[in-house]
Design goal:
Shape: globular
Radius of gyration: 20 Å
CATH superfamily of the largest domain: Iron/manganese superoxide dismutase, C-terminal domain
Helix content: 55-70%
Number of helices: 10
Strand content: 5-15%
Distance between the termini: 59 Å
CATH topology of the largest domain: minor pseudopilin epsh fold
Strand order of the largest sheet: 2-1-3
Number of strands: 3
Oligomer: single chain
Length: 288
Amino acid sequence: MDSHEQALRKWKDELARLWKEQESEFVRSIGEEQTQPFTKSLSQLEYALEHDPTQANEHAQHAYDSWVVMADLRGKGKNNSVPIGGHRLPPMPYSYNALEPYIDEKTMRLHHLKHHQTYVNDLNKAEKEMEKARRTGNYDLIKHWEREAAFNGAGHYLHTLFWHVMSPNGGGEPQGALKARITEDFGSFQKMKAHFSNAAEKVEGGGWAMLIYAPRSHRLEILQAEKHQNLSQQDQVPLLVLDVWEHAYYLKYQNERKAYIEAWWNVVNWKEAENRYRQASQLKWVPY
């Protein structure tokens, strides 16, 4: 069994675990019939891994795609909001070793299952504590829990986006409207890339670099964020984000953040960024 097959088995086990945890809620919110494409794809993936590993990648993609469809249907239900304290760790859109050699499997696994899960857990705790404060009228610790919600909420949302703006089939340059907008706002793709890379390299401590669309100024900008939420701007839509906390790269690159950033461009999922720009650019506030 090669390393790719091992990673795919682990990814399948993680997806199966998430399904076991959320099956009853999916069935209740969208109906059992709507879950059948996913359960069929998951069964086919399990069979392929045991009997015909050459077909496993195809079935893994089908399983992930059908999971996304289920989640979208659930989100369009009668109440599409996440319950207070009900945030969940999203499944990875690819196996943990899929971004090698640029980002290693061990880093991806720890980053997702440990770091991201912690942000989810602590966000849920903060939301429940603030709900408790509203219920009891005791706001003595509201400053603390608001800070916890800001840090962990931003961490959860940014990581959820981070996984999707990377792909084993990534790299290259954007196309279409996003490329045209980048050229208009930065002069060229290479100038945007240089600006983004330097902003990422120079984030003080842990944090992020972000290519964003600004509905107020009607253009693209590059921002830093320290931690997840500090020293940045509000009322923006992130299109492309890069995590430069040490836990995102230290196992492979040690303190060579610049080398990590250069490698990361090889896995950028421009299709996802283009899709986000297509939707975000519909937002246009009165410019000031």
